[in-house]
Write a structure and sequence with these properties.
CATH superfamily: NADH:ubiquinone/plastoquinone oxidoreductase, chain 3
Largest sheet: none
Mean pLDDT: 83
Number of domains: 1
Length: about 120
């Protein structure tokens, strides 16, 4: 049984060794001095206006959650559409219920004003 995992172990060892070798080559052969300006963090080429730990509006997170939900919806729709003949009427009804629940959640978010930016 252990012999079945030997190719995976060999692949991981080679990949790790190659990664370490390439990092060391980059450090050894890299040109230029590493001064304080090169090591400083930057954003768009200039210093940040405010503290990077500022608070975000909660609506940003609501829109992000909506994006994830509808992205997952599409991920569920593709296999369902491919196997629609196999799942039949039960699959059609269950996907209809699934989509209806997502639409109800979307309308709820819309009514609460999560999609409006003031």
């Amino acid at each position: 049984m252990l012999a079945e995992y030997a190719p995976i172990l060999i692949f991981l060892i080679i990949a790790g060794a190659l990664g370490v070798i390439l990092l060391l080559l980059g450090l050894a052969l890299g040109r230029g001095q590493k001064d304080a300006e090169k090591r400083s963090p930057y954003e768009c080429g200039f210093e940040a206006f405010e503290d990077t730990r500022m608070r975000f509006d909660v609506r940003y997170y609501l829109v992000a959650i909506l994006f994830i939900i509808f992205d997952l919806e599409i991920a569920f729709l593709f296999p369902w559409a491919v196997s629609l003949d196999a799942v039949g009427l039960f699959g059609l009804v269950s996907m209809g219920i699934f989509l209806a629940l997502l639409v109800v959640g979307f309308i709820y978010e819309w009514r609460k004003g999560a999609l409006e930016w003031d």
